[in-house]
Write a structure and sequence with these properties.
Length: 398
């Protein structure tokens, strides 16, 4: 917050003072220390008002530069986390929504660490394209292939597809070698669907895509998890704060009122409550399951398709290289968002079995974060679990 405030303060001074670099502007590309050196040097040469104006302009410039750089670092987060090569050999990792964005990036780095990867996708064509992309990445990084990368069809907005998936996985080539799942990465989701959309199962699209579909999928796959120890990693978001007053059980499907961002915030709170209740039940049952959730940050992914408009949006997987003009148009968004490589850090970190005693926790930038009371309401978590079983028609026994 202090860094962000510094950037705002510097920007304010820049606007009010109409800062324009002069012939010593070469200093600004190095550091604020160099700016200070430049200011001291000029102060001994220039005199009177010109000297004071020059000093003030450079002071503002230094503050602006420092604020921009510092805020950029804060937004971007740590450098990409790279699991050690072959550290995940013989591990089977299932990733929902794995054909693009965070799911695809996770698949790349986890496969490079030796894991067997199963990407789920609604489109078999896009799934196959993602598999090739991962295999190319592994070859480039390791100089040797990982042929254990697969794609299977799954539509979270179709409960028939969700319920059929465990059998589909068990009969796949991916499952023949391991006979169990080591990591389930619940990554897929939608954000800010502009109008109320109802799935074929009769549920609001955000609710089913982000929570109910993953609830039913996790229930179906839990018997296939590695009994010696496994992880269920669910991608949530700090957007749960939109629902910080608590989960409204009467409006899960927008029955009372539908607002795009409210629906998204509720679904992210549901992800956290589901994770906490899952960990509680797994512990009580003596299951060696670690359930954990995370906030990836504001990341440049296909999740923004509804903000731009689906009719105008081009998937990251299909998009051509942007022109210089295209880049200029989105520079503000680039500055205040993460690239996919950094945005995927937490889910890759957790899927690579990093961190100890992290069950039920919430991560951001690979570090545990405190949650507000709405996300710690275990009575509401228990109620959500019960309602989710009823709605999905799936009994989640542990």
């Amino acid at each position: 917050m202090k860094i962000f405030s510094l950037a705002l303060l510097a920007a304010h001074f820049s606007e009010t003072c109409s800062f324009v670099p002069h012939h010593h502007s070469r200093y600004y590309v190095y550091s604020s220390a160099n700016v200070a050196t430049s200011m001291a040097s000029d102060a001994t040469i220039e005199e009177g008002d010109d000297s004071r104006r020059g000093f003030f302009k450079k002071l503002v410039g230094g503050a602006l530069f420092t604020g921009i750089v510092a805020n950029g670092v804060a937004v971007q987060g740590p450098s990409p986390f790279i699991p050690v090569t072959d550290s995940l050999k013989d591990q089977l990792i299932v990733i929902t929504g794995g054909n693009t964005g965070l799911g695809l990036e996770s698949g790349k780095r986890l496969a490079a660490a030796g894991a067997t990867i199963v990407l789920t996708s609604r489109s078999t064509i896009k799934g196959a394209k993602a598999v090739q992309s991962i295999q190319d990445y592994v070859m480039e990084q390791n100089g040797k292939p990982n042929d254990n990368v697969y794609t299977l069809s799954l539509d979270l907005c179709d409960l028939e597809s969700v319920k059929a998936f465990p059998a589909l996985l068990k009969n796949s080539d991916a499952f023949k070698n391991s006979q169990h799942i080591d990591v389930l990465l619940n990554n897929a989701g939608v954000m800010a669907v502009p109008d109320l959309e109802i799935t074929k199962d009769g549920f609001e699209k955000t609710f089913q895509s982000n929570h109910l579909g993953h609830f039913a999928l996790t229930a179906g796959l839990e018997p296939l998890m590695n009994s010696a120890g496994s992880r269920i990693v669910t991608v949530s978001s700090m957007a749960y704060l939109i629902a910080q007053e608590g989960l409204d059980m009467t409006n899960l499907n927008g029955e009372v009122e539908y607002k795009p961002w409210d629906a998204y915030g509720r679904s992210k709170l549901e992800n956290i409550l589901f994770t906490k209740e899952l960990q509680k039940r797994a512990d009580a049952a003596g299951k060696k399951i670690t359930a954990v959730t995370l906030h990836p940050g504001a990341v440049r992914t296909d999740l923004a398709r509804y903000i731009y408009g689906e009719d105008k949006y081009v998937s990251m997987q299909d998009a051509p290289s942007p022109s210089f003009t295209d880049v200029l148009k989105v520079l503000p968004a680039f500055y205040f968002t993460k690239n996919v490589e950094r945005g995927a850090n937490s889910q890759i970190y957790l899927s690579a079995f990093q961190g100890e005693n992290v069950g039920g926790e919430f991560f951001f930038n690979m570090e545990e974060q405190k949650l507000l009371p709405a996300a710690l309401d275990m009575e509401k978590a228990k109620e959500l679990w019960k309602v989710s079983e009823e709605m999905s028609g799936v009994k989640f026994n542990l």
